[in-house]
Amino acid sequence: MEQSGDRNEELDTRRLRALSRAVLLYREQVPSSSVLQLYTFLVLASQDKPIGLTDLARAVGTGKPVISAAVENLGGFGRGPAGKDSSPPNLVHCKDHPSDRRSKLAELTPKGAALAAKLCAILGGLP
Fold it and tell me: Count of domains in the chain?
């Protein structure tokens, strides 16, 4: 029985190391990123089509002003983090909703999709 417990602990350690590598890779692209921005990026990466900011906020579990700031910090509006001199990471792009000009749709840019693929490669082999 102890061997089985040791194996589970080993697998958990492997998962945590892989997750740490994935977060470090993400942080290389977005050094000033918060956990909320990382989660926003991951939710966007899991979508198969652009998602409205209101729906994205609901999926992340926050309000629209907070999600708008997170998307802005990921480069969604063509700007970098508010008040920062750094250029935007250009991981996310926002565009007008085709049927509601007041609404925006968010999606990953090619650079964001490439980063998401690298994160999946790091995490993909884990049981």
Answer: 1
Here the CATH number for the domain that contains residue 12 is 1.10.10.10
What is the model's pTM? 0.81
The label of the residue with tokens 């956990």 reads 35
**In this predicted model, what pLDDT tens digit does every residue of 11-36 receive, in sequence order?**
678 888 888 999 999 999 888 888 99
DSSP the chain: -HHHHHHHHHHHHHHHHHHHHHHHHHHHHSTT--HHHHHHHHHHHT-SS-EEHHHHHHHHTS-HHHHHHHHHHTTTTS--STT--SPP---EEEEEETTEEEEEEEEE-HHHHHHHHHHHHHHHT--
For 32, the domain range is: 2-124
pLDDT higher than 80, residue 81: no
